[in-house]
Every structure is written in C-alpha cells, then in structure tokens.
Design brief:
InterPro entries: DUF1262 (IPR010683). This protein is mainly beta. The protein is built from three helices and 19 strands.
Length: 298
C-alpha cells in the first residue's frame, strides 16, 4: 500500500524517504502537489514555463516522456546531454488525479467514533482515519485493458463506526444476556455480500471475492496488510466460518422502565474505490472487544 509525498515536501525534507511507511508491503508515491511552479523551468526570458524535471524523483501522477537515440552515432536529445532541461512531463494528469494520502492519521487512530446517536440508527456516522493507494495490478475487476486506460491506482480508505449487532425489546428483567455467534469479518463486492477463501490463492497470488454483483480479486499482500492493520488495534480473527462467540450480561442502571436495548460493536471498514470514488468493494473487521449498549426507556 502506498502513502503519498509531494515533490515540495521531499525538496524541503529529503529524509522523509529514509524510512518506509509503517506496515508490511508498503511504500511511497511521489506526486506533484500544489507547488507546480517549483517544478517548471522558465523560458522566453521568464514569460512562460516549460514542464521539465531536472532531477529525481519524478512525480508518479504524471506521464513522463523519455526519448532515446536510435543510431549508435546519433545525437541524443538535448535533455540527455546534461543541458538545462530535464525530463519532459505532460502538464495534465493522464486520466486520473491523485489526492494526498497520508496513511493512518496519528491523531485519530486511537479515538473512537462518537456514540451520540439515537437507538433507532443501525450504525453511527463513520469516522475516516486513513487513506492509501493500491496499484491496479494488485486488483482484478472488469476488463484489464479498460482498467489500464481508466486508472493506475485504486484508493483505499479506512473508516470506523459503531454497528448494531443485537437488539432486545420489552423485558421485565433489569439484566439482559447477550450470547451467540456473531460475524467478525464481512466483505461486499458492490452492494452484495461476498464469499471468499483465503486458503485458495491462484498462480498470481490473488484471492477472489465473489457475490451476486460480480467478482473482484485482491493480491494476498493487500489482504495481509488489512488484517495486520486491524490486528494491531485489537481485532481477533474468528473460527473457520469467520464467527466469534460473545457472552456478556448488561444491566439497566437508569430509573424507570427500559423498553429496548441495542448492542453495538466497533467496526473498521476498508473501502476500495476507483479514482472517481466509485466503490468497488469493502472489507469489514468487527472488534468484539469494544462493545457498547444503548437503552431506550419510558
């Protein structure tokens, strides 16, 4: 997975590339950023600018044109002779625009979403805590040729929310027992629940997610990265059916009579999107070590 760094950041702080991003299978993407004039060369006595790069690293959200001499005694292009020009870059992005993606937000990853919402809601408002990029070669969906033209990277976002997994109504007892098997890992392709088997990996190290809405495959490295990211925050994998047994008892401590109880679990959702923010699939990890209840009373 990639996080981004702008050219202006690297010019001011080259040490940013010294240490790779945290986590397995991770690296950096260098993008042009907003400091566009810093990456141009003045021409015509300063009246215009030529899009040229004088040094590495090259921005990965641009098309770079490289020219070579053909004959052994041919004259190389001017920018290969060590002159004042560098690599020539197309001024506009090619079919995509990469927004900054800083990875996990250190100010938010230890913060829980707000629990201030009515019991009638099945989940809370999602809290975005991270953004990354994934190369298209690590994802299979649709026609390969169309994907090469349409995009080069997929966006990956991480959101947290509270999700209702149990409800109980009209009980005369002040105590409510929650007992049973609950799904702790869920995936969807489009709007449909998906099935997958992490033990079945094809020759390209792809894991297939299949639903009524289609099929999407992810490289095993991406799946391992998502699980690593959540396991270090306390998520525990379930059984072979991706279920976990929950046993707990909650007691109503307020005054009056309660009419409904809702039990919520903390959910971390990784959403894979095309560059145009079109949702491709999502994977959800449910943290049953972090549960809260809401009571509705008369």
């Amino acid at each position: 997975m990639y996080t981004t760094r702008t050219l202006s950041q690297l010019k001011q702080h080259p040490e940013l590339l010294g240490d790779p991003p945290e986590g397995p299978n991770s690296d950096y993407l260098v993008i042009e950023g907003e400091q566009y004039t810093e990456d141009t060369v003045p021409s015509c006595f300063g009246m215009c600018f030529v899009e040229a790069k004088l040094e590495l690293p090259l921005p990965q959200d641009k098309r770079v044109i490289v020219e070579y001499k053909v004959s052994p005694d041919g004259q190389p292009p001017r920018f290969l002779r060590g002159g004042e020009f560098g690599w020539r870059i197309v001024p506009n992005p090619y079919h995509f625009h990469l927004r900054p993606a800083g990875g996990l937000d250190p100010k938010l990853f230890d913060r829980l979403p707000s629990f201030d919402f009515p019991l009638s809601k099945s989940c809370s408002t999602p809290m975005a805590i991270g953004r990354w990029y994934c190369p298209f070669l690590f994802v299979k969906e649709g026609n390969l040729g169309n994907r090469v033209i349409r995009l080069s990277y997929y966006g990956m976002t991480l959101e947290r929310r509270w999700k209702k997994v149990f409800t109980c109504r009209d009980s005369n007892d002040a105590r409510v027992a929650v007992s049973g098997l609950f799904e702790n890992e869920v995936s969807c392709v489009g709007k449909w629940r998906a099935k997958w088997d992490e033990k079945k990996v094809d020759c390209e190290r792809m894991i297939w997610y299949e639903s009524c809405g289609g099929r999407v495959s992810l490289r095993r490295e991406i799946v391992e990265w998502m699980r690593w990211e959540d396991e270090r925050r306390g998520w525990v994998s379930g059984d072979e059916e991706r279920q976990m047994r929950v046993e707990r008892v909650d007691k109503f401590k307020g005054s009056g009579v309660w009419t409904e109880l809702g039990c919520y679990v903390l959910v971390a959702r990784f959403s894979l999107k095309a560059i145009g923010e079109e949702l491709v699939m999502w994977c959800e990890y449910r943290h049953f070590d972090k549960m809260k209840v809401k009571w509705d009373k008369l």
